[in-house]
Specification:
The structure holds 3 protein chains of 3 kinds.
Chain A lengths: L1 H18 L2 H25 L13 E11 L2 E9 L3 H18 L8 H20 L3 H10 L1 H11 L4 H30 L6 H9 L11 H19 L8 H8 L2 H26 L1 H6 L1 H21 L3 H22 L2 H32 L10 H4 L1 H14 L6 H14 L7 H9 L1 H17 L16 H19 L2 H17 L4
Antiparallel strand pairs in A: 1-2
Helix pairs in contact in A: 1-2, 1-4, 2-3, 2-4, 3-4, 3-11, 3-15, 3-21, 4-5, 4-6, 4-11, 6-7, 7-9, 7-10, 9-11, 10-14, 11-14, 11-15, 13-14, 13-19, 13-20, 14-15, 14-18, 14-19, 14-20, 15-17, 15-18, 15-21, 15-22, 17-20, 17-21, 18-21
Chain B lengths: L5 H18 L8 H25 L2 E10 L7 E8 L1 H26 L6 H20 L3 H19 L7 H31 L10 H10 L11 H19 L8 H4 L5 H10 L3 H9 L1 H5 L2 H22 L5 H21 L3 H28 L17 H15 L5 H18 L3 H29 L6 H4 L6 H16 L6 H7 L6 H6 L8 H7 L10 H27 L13 H7 L4 H45 L7 H23 L4
Antiparallel strand pairs in B: 1-2
Helix pairs in contact in B: 1-2, 1-4, 2-3, 2-4, 3-4, 3-10, 3-15, 3-20, 4-5, 5-6, 6-8, 8-11, 8-13, 10-15, 11-14, 11-15, 13-14, 13-18, 14-15, 14-17, 14-18, 15-16, 15-17, 15-20, 16-18, 16-20, 17-18, 17-24, 18-24, 21-24
Chain C lengths: L3 H21 L3 H26 L3 H31 L13
Classes of the chains: A mainly alpha, B mainly alpha, C mainly alpha.
Chain lengths: 507, 671, 100
């Protein structure tokens, strides 16, 4: 019941925040968003890992209630978590609260709607990570787009409409491809419910029959491709990444935090849940193309980041690069590869959140994000810059910070992969990303933060206020804590990843 | 007993980092005292651990499981401590120099009225903690992690004066160049895990042992389709990438001279004595793994020999005192690499130790001179400081004699052993090693020359500026570290007088050899000598070879020293480098290595811009193209909506008729 | 009894007259009348089939249609009045300002 309570509370909080006067909306939303954190932490403490939810393991906090019937297939209210989704639930609740706090300064218009939409998005994200029925999941998946569209389109920068529409249409078309692909599988299987565990196990037991004149194997391949394309846009991977920088640049900082921190993880989470858990044989068939996509995302994304002059674009492209690692870890199909990819989702969520937050804090003070406009910011905002530097090093994969843990697990796992041919070469190529990431982040930091202070403004640049520093500090602490003790999440992740590997064990 | 406190050796400086960072503002001396107390505490604990190793032997314990896999043979990624003679010795060196540098910083930073001291001491504390963590690491992954952390501290401390333009740029370069090396190192770590399933340095299941057994064919490991020796060579060279970066070997040495932008105590601690030694230490730590690969060893030796000579030539023309020292550091680490590659595990360790003492001494001496000169580092503005700062002069001279390799200072013994190992193993049938030896030997007179050029320009002759005539006095906190290190620079060579032993036939004065044999079984110097692929050859007998080798290197060193004396030990020295003509420009510009790397960086930037244009133009162009096409076709199709009801009705009617016709034709109504 | 096809022919003829009016006239009042004709063509069918099947459903529907036609005329004339006020004519071709 805890999940229902969590979702219901968050939806109610969103509604309540809509009704609160603008002046109090920020603080109210912050206070309300603490409850989901408490809930997710309770879930985390009470969680006992027991395998993967989809492959027949224990599902924690499970609820199954028949809902309605479509084309002879039962749609259920089916929620629950396992070791893969729980870390993401915790990530979502934490990042939402922190991004709400970070919105206090930049959002000075229609606050109640803004915070209401943030909470509404949180509720839907929690739904995405907990729903285990395809229809239910799909509703949440699509519903996330709506608040995001408005958050970019209303509170965004000068080209906000372009960015919002591009984001919405791009991801929506991708969802369509994904939906068609999955429905093809469903009609081929003819299951009794839309429950993901049932569908996964039916697929694993070779219950797929020919449908629409397509042999089961062809059907699976088509479904895999459609799902992959659908989720790849969300991740995003090269070449379907171009909505991301536009969305990030136009979105207000708190929205960027959610976008990079949680929304991108929906894509990789879904890839893991659908493509790699349900259709491992097809993944192995397409291992090389997927690995190429991953490596190209890593290197190409990093090269693009190197060419940017806007701090937000730099971080946005570096997300493309980082998510390439996740794809590489998934396709490796080893314990450390898939487990590390899941860990990296959380780690990158925290780190990119911190980076966007830092850029936002600097933007709040300087009203610019262009590298060449700034110099010597460290002189005026020492604490904020200190945390930004720490965050940048976390992004570069400094050991004992979460980013290194995720990346190392992925590299170790993918180097060792038996499923992916030429795994060492792909791994070594992708690893070159850690050099380029150091290059562009160090270059940007040198130009903006260090050197003599030089920024011509008609207002004074003062150190960031406490409520801007505090969420950054919390994130940094979380990053270090996860980097020192990755077992906090890794144990449950591995526990849930193991059955997936066994599922595709014939490989 | 002592070993239970080993984690405290690492944690104490970390504590001082935390204190300095968060409370440094409110503490007297900006957190320096916490740092001194912490490093001194670590020093005492290290000495205790050292003595315990002596009495009880080596010690290894896994302390913390960072991450562990599942399955039948899960990977265990752990943190543990390995205290054996090598690491115990390194612990003492690092903590000693860290303590002295903290004390020296009181004079160099606090007394000079620097701002941002908490940040400085926090950086030093974190560095010391990371370095000690690296030293005690019992597996390759942990070593890598702390290896990266010392890189971070190096970045932070080089860029300490971030309000100027130079230091941040130098810091960036240092981190980036070493990161490039660490990229290969990380592949190496991952490859070690994939190959052996463990990265432990010690134990029956450690990777050097498994490698040895795999080459012998006793066990099989996943060598990715290669012959074991070939694969181990590849992995070894990958790890070597990190070593080359961190120990500033050719071609990744370019960051070190720039790193001199940092405060001088930092240069002494990080960029001379400890962090730069991390690379060499790492090779020594996993020497058993390199020993199975003759190719890797040969490459190490060659890189080392070449770097020793290459860097020494650049030191000859530099004008700034710290630049000379920077190039000499690169050159000296080249010697250590040469020793490692030539099978001289003990020689490399020996030189690592003596060099740590005398190079830290030289840097701190330079720091003292820089204080006196009001932060002017140009040697041509100095001169005649000998009488005004006697403590600095005499200790600096001791360090210089050690660096130049003059008998009986410490550097002579260690450098001689390095060259001796290269010589006998070269004569034993490895002509490549002889080439490396020749380069190392050639570097000897060059080293002596630039060292004494530096001494003469700084301390001898007439003062050439007003500052040099009235230098600022330095206090006890500068003189004390100098004196301690000065004594060590003179006597440290006595711990390993192998030549004396061999020539006079005295037994048991090669203490370092004996000491390094007290480790766990496969980590002993003795074992490394056995598995090393080299055999020894001699000129005449062993004693003759020792004498000839020592005489040649000492003679060359003296020749260099005398040339420097002749040219620069005059009242009004002039720049003789002009006589070198075009060569001088090449040397002064570091063989245009920096330009080459800047060129590479710029080319990368250009590629990035092209990629950006491609991304914006082509990839995003396609996306926008799709939307444009939709918009355009939409704008055309909507013309159907004329707004005239009659037209709609006509369309309706036509549509109905068409539908009826179609159904009729398909349904066969008209047949 | 008159065969069903006569009714059908009649209703088709009435419908076509109505359709012709809709397609050719541009006066909105003619439109209303033409639509009325078409509705009544449908009514004829309803009533005819009602008689044919001996079932009252068709007649019920015819009554519905008559009521609907009355309502439609009321609203339609209202719209035509507004049209006249805004465009100064009751021609349907003038009211094309909201296209595109």
């Amino acid at each position: 019941m805890i999940i229902e309570a969590l979702l219901a509370f968050t939806f109610a909080a969103a509604l309540f925040t809509f009704a609160v006067p603008n002046k109090y909306a920020g603080k109210t939303a912050f206070a309300l968003s603490l409850v989901p954190i408490a809930g997710s932490l309770y879930m985390w403490s009470a969680f006992e890992s027991g395998g993967n939810a989809l492959t027949g393991g224990d599902i924690a906090f499970e609820t199954v209630i028949p809902w309605l019937e479509l084309a002879g297939i039962q749609v259920q209210w089916f929620v629950g978590v396992d070791g893969i989704s729980l870390p993401l639930v915790v990530l979502t609740t934490f990042l939402t609260t922190l991004s709400i706090v970070s919105a206090w300064t930049p959002i000075d218009d229609r606050q109640s709607q803004f915070y209401g939409l943030m909470l509404f998005m949180e509720a839907n994200l929690l739904g995405v990570f907990t729903a285990l029925d395809f229809f239910l999941w799909f509703i949440f998946w699509e519903a996330v787009l709506v608040p995001m569209y408005f958050l970019i389109g209303v509170w965004g920068g000068p080209r906000r409409k372009y960015a919002a529409i591009k984001f919405f249409v791009y991801t929506n078309i991708a969802s369509l491809a994904m939906f068609i692909g999955f429905m093809a599988l469903v009609f081929g299987l003819g299951p009794s419910t839309f429950g993901l565990p049932e569908i996964t196990q039916a697929l694993a037991n070779d219950q797929l029959s020919a449908w629409f004149g397509l042999a089961p194997e062809t059907l699976k391949l088509i479904a895999f491709l459609a799902l992959f394309v659908g989720f790849a846009v969300k991740v995003p991977v090269v070449p379907v990444h171009t909505w991301l920088p536009d969305a990030h640049v136009e979105a207000p900082t708190p929205v960027s935090i959610m976008l990079a921190g949680v929304l991108l993880k929906m894509g990789t989470y879904a890839l893991l849940r659908f493509n790699f858990t349900m259709l491992p044989d097809q993944a192995s068939l397409l291992a090389i193309p997927i690995a190429i996509v991953a490596v190209v995302s890593v290197i190409y994304g990093a090269m693009l980041a190197l060419a940017q002059t806007d701090l937000k674009r730099i971080v946005a492209y570096s997300s493309v690069s980082s998510m390439g690692y996740v794809i590489l870890g998934l396709i490796a199909f080893t314990e450390f590869g898939v487990g590390g990819a899941t860990f990296q989702m959380v780690a990158h969520g925290l780190i990119s959140g911190l980076m966007f937050m830092s850029v936002g804090v600097i933007y709040n003070a300087t009203h610019t994000r262009i590298v060449s406009d700034m110099s010597g910011m460290a002189d005026r905002m020492p604490v904020a810059v200190g945390i930004l530097v720490a965050g940048a090093f976390a992004y570069m994969g400094l050991p004992l910070m979460a980013g290194f843990a995720g990346e190392f697990f992925i590299f170790a796992g993918s180097f060792d992969s038996t499923l992916l041919p030429y795994a060492p070469i792909f791994t070594a190529l992708a690893m070159f990303g850690i050099v380029i990431v150091a290059g562009y982040l160090l270059l940007a930091m040198q130009r903006t933060l260090f050197g003599p202070f030089r920024l011509e403004t008609d207002y004074e640049i003062t150190p960031a206020p406490m409520h801007e520093i505090a969420p950054m500090a919390v994130l940094l602490l979380a990053i270090i804590a996860l980097g020192v003790a990755p077992e906090v999440f890794l144990e449950m992740i591995f526990d849930a990843v193991g059955p997936i590997l066994d599922n595709g064990g014939g490989l | 007993m002592a070993f239970e406190y080993v984690p405290a050796i690492v944690l104490l400086p970390f504590l001082s980092f935390v204190i300095a960072l968060f409370a440094g503002k409110y503490l007297p001396k900006g957190g320096a005292l916490a740092g001194i107390a912490a490093t001194a505490g670590s020093l005492l604990l290290s000495i205790w651990a050292f003595l315990t190793v002596r009495s009880q032997g080596a010690y290894q314990e896994t302390i913390y499981t960072w991450a562990s896999g599942f399955g039948e043979q899960p990977w265990e990624l752990t943190f543990g401590v390995l205290i054996d003679p090598l690491s115990a010795m390194m612990l003492v060196i690092v903590t000693l120099i860290a303590t002295l540098v903290h004390v020296f910083s009181l004079g160099y930073m606090n007394d000079e009225g620097e701002t941002g001291l908490p940040r400085y001491y926090a950086g030093l504390g974190l560095f010391t903690a990371s370095m000690l963590g690296f030293v005690v690491a019992d597996n390759l992954l942990m070593a890598f992690m702390f290896f990266e952390l010392v890189g971070l501290c190096s970045y932070l401390l080089i860029g300490f004066w971030f309000r100027e333009d130079g230091p941040p740029s130098a810091a960036k370069k240092a981190f980036l160049v070493t990161r490039f090396g660490d990229y290969f190192f990380l592949i190496g770590v991952v490859a070690v895990f994939s190959t052996f399933g463990t990265a432990a340095f010690v134990g029956a299941e450690s990777f050097p042992v498994l490698a040895e057994e795999a080459v012998a064919g006793d066990v099989t490991v996943n060598t990715f389709g290669f012959d074991p020796t070939t694969w181990f060579t590849i992995v070894g060279l990958l790890v070597l990438g990190g070593v080359v970066g961190k120990s500033a070997q050719f071609p990744l040495h370019t960051w070190l001279p720039d790193a001199m932008e940092g405060p001088t105590p930092v240069s002494a601690l990080i960029h001379a004595a400890t962090m730069v030694a991390a690379g060499v230490y790492l090779v020594a730590r996993m020497y058993g793994f390199y020993a199975v690969s003759p190719t890797a060893l040969a490459i190490i030796a060659f890189i080392g020999g070449f770097t020793a000579l290459f860097a020494a030539t650049m030191g000859v023309v530099k004008r700034e005192i710290k630049q000379v020292l920077a190039y000499s550091t690169i050159s000296q680490y080249g010697y250590m690499m040469l020793a490692l590659g030539a099978g001289g595990y003990v020689a490399a360790t020996f030189h690592l130790m003596t060099h740590a003492f005398f190079k830290a001494l030289l840097f701190l001496g330079a720091g003292s001179v820089i204080i006196a000169m009001h932060h002017n580092e140009n040697m041509w503005d100095m001169g005649g400081l000998k009488d005004k700062m006697p403590v600095t002069y005499w200790t600096f001279l001791a360090g210089s004699l050690a660096l130049a390799g003059i008998f009986p200072f410490s550097g002579f013994w260690s450098k001689d052993e390095v060259l001796y190992e290269a010589l006998i193993h070269g004569l034993g049938g490895s002509p490549l090693l002889l080439g490396a030896y020749a380069m190392g030997l050639l570097a000897v007179p060059v080293t002596a020359f630039y060292t004494f050029r530096m001494v003469y320009l700084t301390f001898h002759g007439e003062p050439r500026t007003d500052t040099a005539r009235n230098p600022e006095p330095v206090r006890w906190n500068v003189k004390f570290p100098l004196s301690v290190l000065g004594v060590l620079a003179v006597v440290a060579g006595l711990v390993n007088m192998v030549p004396v032993q061999k020539v006079l036939g005295l037994e048991g004065i090669d203490y370092l050899h004996q000491w390094l044999d007290q480790s766990f079984d496969p980590l002993t110097a003795h074992h490394y000598a056995e598995v090393s692929p080299y055999s020894s050859g001699y000129i005449g007998g062993e004693a003759t070879t020792v004498l000839v080798g020592a005489a040649v290197s000492l003679g060359l060193a003296l020749a260099g020293l005398l040339l420097a004396t002749y040219l620069y030990n005059v009242a009004e020295p002039t720049e003789h480098t002009a006589k070198l003509g075009a060569i001088k420009d090449v040397l002064y510009n570091n063989y245009y290595q920096d330009e080459f790397q800047v060129w590479i960086a710029n080319r990368t930037q250009s590629v990035a811009s092209v990629a950006d244009t491609f991304d914006q133009g082509v990839i995003d162009g396609v996306v926008n193209g799709v939307s444009s096409v939709s918009l355009f076709s939409g704008s055309r199709v909507r013309r159907i909506q004329t707004g005239v009801v009659t037209n709609y009705a006509a369309l309706l009617t036509l549509g109905l008729t068409a539908l009826l016709l179609a159904f009729g034709l398909l349904g066969g109504w008209f047949l | 009894m008159v065969p069903a096809q006569y009714y059908l022919l009649l209703s088709a003829a009435v419908f076509c007259i109505g359709l012709f009016g809709v397609l050719t006239r541009d006066n909105a009042l003619y439109f209303l009348m033409s639509v009325e004709l078409m509705l009544n063509a449908a009514n004829i069918n309803f009533v005819a089939f009602s008689l044919f099947w001996g079932n009252l459903t068709g007649q019920t529907f015819a009554l519905f249609v008559i009521a609907l036609a009355a309502a439609e005329v009321a609203i339609g004339i209202g719209i035509i009045l507004v049209l006249y006020r805004n465009f100064g004519s009751v021609s349907v071709t003038d009211a094309a300002t909201m296209r595109w």
